[in-house]
Amino acid sequence: MWTMIEGFQSLSHEEIDALVGAPALITILVGAADGEIDREERKWTERLLRTRTYNRPKELNEFYRVVVSDFWAKVQSEMDRLPTDVDARNSALSDRLEKLNPILAKLDVDLAADLYTGFVGLAEETAKASGGFLRIGSISAVESKWVKLPMLTPIEHHREVEDEDQDFDASDDSGD
Fold first, then answer.
1. Rounded Cα gap, residues 146 and 151, in angstroms
2. Of 33, 82, 167, 171, whose CB neighbour count within 10 A is largest?
3. pLDDT value of position 131
4. CA atoms within 13 A on the CB side of 114
């Protein structure tokens, strides 16, 4: 299965597993930062991830197909293993996500930047999903601590990227 994900050849199966598991961890970190992942957060997160299986950047379509496979089962499995105390859970999640930095450093910088941008976009969309009017100004104080994924080292593209190539907004899912 992993050999189908182009650009990940320099990684071990364990490292690829860590990257594939990151969206579930990010969803828990941000979506359950206030206690539980609510219905709107679940709906928007799933919609966003499904969009990424056919959207830009095309190099990551297969990666997100693997991510989306049994996504909520992965989230639930992680929730079952994590501490129930929110602060302890968030600390554990932050520590696990921080371990992605050396893995991302092994990838082509543009592929790593696309992953990083996608992870931050997922965190932002998950945070916006459950509050506010038309999801405007809906990031809670507890979510805002995590929404920029401060445990990850920001990665910039080396290639020129058009703004639309990095637009991972769920509203851009013309395939639905």
1. 9
2. 33
3. 58
4. 21
Q: What is the CA radius of gyration of the chain?
A: 15
Other Cβ atoms closer than 10 A to 40? 16
Under 8 Å between Cβ of 58 and 151: no
Question: pTM for the complete prediction?
Answer: 0.82
- Quote the mean pLDDT of the chain: 82
Most confident region among 108-112, 121-125, 128-132, 168-172 by mean pLDDT? 108-112
Q: At what angle do helices 39-51 and 61-68 cross, to 10 degrees?
A: 150
